[in-house]
Amino acid sequence: MLLALCTVVELKIPNPYKVLGIQQDATEEQIKEGFKRRSKKYHPDRNKTDPKAKEKFEKIVNAYELLKDPERRRMYDLTGDEDPTGQQQQHHGFGGFPGGGINMKT
């Protein structure tokens, strides 16, 4: 049971440009427009019958948050990853407690 709690989970983000329906060379204005267009289309309040609407909307918000920040966007464009070191995308069991962050990878 402890082993299951200590498993490292890696969260991979989808391509933010595809999520927003924009080109990789999009301007700040095009990023904002892509966000507005997709967020209206997939907002959970407008898609109450779609059980995945909230998940889709969260991906749209996360993509926008990444691309509107010039440094995070630059890092993604260079590496294909928002955080190439993996520091922000790995969550370790018991990470919020003293002695936490146990990594059972060998």
Automatic annotation (TrEMBL):
The UniProt keywords, alphabetically, are:
Chaperone
The family database entries (CDD domains) matched by this protein are listed as:
DnaJ
Where is composition skewed (Gly residues) in this entry?
Answer: 93-106
Looking at the record, which segments are called Disordered? 34-53, 76-106
What Gene Ontology cellular-component terms does the record carry?
endoplasmic reticulum
Q: Which GO terms describe its molecular function?
A: misfolded protein binding; protein-folding chaperone binding
Q: Gene3D superfamilies of this UniProt entry?
A: DnaJ domain
Q: Which InterPro entries match?
A: DnaJ_domain (IPR001623), DnaJ_domain_CS (IPR018253), Hsp70_co-chaperone_J-domain (IPR051948), J_dom_sf (IPR036869)
- Record's keyword annotation contains Chaperone: yes
The question of whether Chaperone is a record keyword is answered with yes
Which ranges carry the J domain?
A: 15-80
| Name of one Pfam family that matches | DnaJ
Tell me the Gene Ontology biological-process terms attached to this UniProt entry.
ERAD pathway
Its name, as the record gives it, is J domain-containing protein
Q: Where does this protein come from, organism-wise?
A: Nymphaea colorata
